[in-house]
TrEMBL record:
Domain C2H2-type residue range list: 17-37
UniProt cross-references to InterPro entries, sorted A to Z: Znf_C2H2_type
Lineage: Eukaryota, Sar, Alveolata, Ciliophora, Postciliodesmatophora
Protein known as: C2H2-type domain-containing protein
Amino acid sequence: MLRCSTFGCDGLPNKQCSNCERILLCEGCIPNHNTKHLKENTTCILDEIKIKLPAGRLARLRENIEKSISNIEDQKKRIMSEALKMNCQDDIMVTSAFE
Ligand SMILES: [Zn+2]
Ligand SMILES: [Zn+2]
């Protein structure tokens, strides 16, 4: 059976927070969770409970990998433009180091 994700709470969950790894929340814990988000200045996104499917996990994994790759690409671009800005003779070396 599904259980509220709050530590020490055995309540039957009726919402999940999409902003917190889809943790499950029971009626009684929703206000506390909202307060936590207010304190952290983040948004609480309450959704209907959807059971995680392996396909969803895979898609998320792929998403994470794509995100990491684009982060690396961004870094590469940043380093390249920094090298250009400094009119650095080594920019050819920077380029080849990433290939
Ligand atoms: Zn949350
Ligand atoms: Zn609870």
